[in-house]
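Sanity check

After download, print the first record. It should look like this:
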Amino acid sequence: MKVMRHAIPVIILFIGFVLTECSDDSGSAPAAGSATLTTTAVTGITSSGASGGGTITADGGAAVTTRGVVWSTNSAPTVSLATKTTDGSGTGTFTSTLTNLSPGTTYFVRAYATNDAGTAYGNEVTFTTPSLPVLTTAVITQAGGTTAVSGGTITADGGSAVSARGIVWNTMPNPTIELATKTSDGSGTGTFTSTLTGLADGTRYYVRAYATNSAGTAYGNEVTFMAIAAFTALDDAIAAQMTKYTIPGVSVAIVRNEKLVYVKSYGYADKEAKQLATNDNLYRIASISKPITAAVILRLVQDGKLTLDQKVFGTGAILGNDYGAPPVGSQKDNITIRHLLEHKSGWTNTPDDPMFSDVTLTQTQLIQGMVANRALTYTPGQTEYYLNFGYCVLGRVIEKVTGKKYDEYVKTVLQGIGVTDMVIAGNTLNNRLPNEVKYYQAEYDPYSMNVTRMDSHGGWLATATDLARFMVHIDRNSSVPDMVSADLENQLYFSFENWAHTGSLPGTSTFVVRENDTFSFVVLANTRSENDYNAILNGLYGAVVTPVKARASWPAYDLF
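Expected structure tokens:
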């Protein structure tokens, strides 16, 4: 038992020795903690940059080796992102510059500080970069040979005050404010008016409104126009007719010796929307569609796909019995292409014009009904009787011999002469195309007809300039090649020194004129007088032809 009593203290002393040795740290410092910091509010915000920073109030017991800010379009950005700054080391306040930002974007920002314990972050702050302003360019008005008026409307400043605004123009598309040809028209949002000066007569210009804020410069839609010296006698005469007949809008194009020497539009394309008429406006051209169809028929003759004296209906004819066999003895199988072109088919509009009788019938149904049921009033080829239906049939002839839809084939021919905007019209106001005028008539709804079905006799939409270009290519003059030979043109009225073709539908009055083998002019209006279809046509014809004939000097430029 004595031995055991002496052994216990030794063991205790040994353990105490071991414990004492284990607690000895040789004077080393305690482990470092994270730094303590806050994120500074973001200032100096532009569309692409901003200023931020932070304040490090404690280093956590270990030196801060890297500090800066990090940002993202998502919350809680970290230094693993490339979008960060490095702004020295140590504690205290630092400033950071955020770059390569996008306009109109919300960012999340945190200051960061890195020491031996890792990276700590400050509170998160957010900011949004300003957007560019939103604006539109006003249509050109009061255009003359050296000046014009435009402007713009700024509907939103993008979150930053608009410091400058105006319009800029050039003879090339997409002008910018680096050009000297611009105006400065104040600041802020809203509508402003600008005057273009120093223009060259007979030159096309491209115009854009601009607005500048801290995000940069934004531009409105581009508008184009021709600087053209006023033709006062004609302008005044047209204005008088517009007042007399309450015509909302008119577009005019005048050609002299195959050069487009004057274009102008008057009034409104859309009264309710206060949309001014321009020479880019499309109009229903009504029966001016017939010269288009006639020229394409002549082109097919020239290409060897038709002959003018080829028969249309019946066995062995172009359309054969596609629309039913002509009744025996009806003489309908004697109708030729020439007869349809010259309105000498023998059919009349008794008891009605089939193209306006039932808007629900298809072209096929109409032709089937006429072939089967309506007797000829005259012997084919003997008597001229103006007939819309005959040109409806010619449209189907074009489809038969080309294997294409009427409008598709005609567009390919028109594109060959530089006419690219013509299309077949829709029927309703909802079908109205962006550049198309609105049609007005008190006595009859212009949107109650099947205009699309009228395609080859009255269905086209065109601008005045489109039709002027077409006229240049069927005038037998030598400067510009015609779309068909002179021999074929001589088969129709295209050979006359003076000829005119009118078009008239509810809401539409149009005409093209060839005058003294020198002038061609086009006039399009978006209304009609129901009690006298010709009243507006005659009034506008006189308003144009008289000053055109009286004018002694014409510009040498070509506005085509």
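If your output differs, re-run the checksum step. Summary of this record's structure: The chain has a mean pLDDT of 93.
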